[in-house]
Amino acid sequence: MIQNTQLSILKLNSDISVFQKQLFINEIEDLSDLGYKTILCNRPDNEEGAIPSSDLERECSKFKIDFFYLPFDSQSFNQTLINKCVEIIATCRKPLLGYCRTGTRSKILLQSITI
Questions:
Q1: For the chain, how big is the Rg over CA atoms in Å?
Q2: CATH code for the domain in which residue 14 is found
Q3: SS3 state of residue 15
Q4: Could you tell me the strand order of the sheet in which 9-11 lies?
Q5: In the chain, how many domains are there?
Q6: What is the pLDDT of residues 51-107, one digit of tens each?
Q7: CA 39 and chain centroid, separation
Q8: Full-model pTM
Q9: What are the DSSP calls for 17-66, one per residue?
């Protein structure tokens, strides 16, 4: 794993990385400049402090970044969620960046698929 400390990015492999904090709208252009083609949101919109996924998706579209909303919490981590994530990874443009509040949920989900 490689870490980009400037943007808090943890690279799991050549195609998949995790943003280790909440993604903010003003960071999307930087992610585009780094070559990210897809963002996977694992943070529920109703979680305290979350930026609405619709706002992030709208900003992503300005930079031609695909956006997928696949929120979950510790109680909803299950095989159905994993299967949906596998489908997204199989069909999305890469590289993909997953995020949640701290990156932990995204890291657990993406590592369960990519290892």
A1: 13
A2: 3.90.190.10
A3: coil
A4: 2-4, 9-11, 16-19, 96-99, 38-41, 66-69
A5: 1
A6: 999 999 999 999 999 999 999 988 889 999 999 999 999 999 999 999 999 999 999
A7: 5
A8: 0.92
A9: EEESS---GGGHHHHHHTT--EEEE-S-TTSTTPPPHHHHHHHHHHTT-E
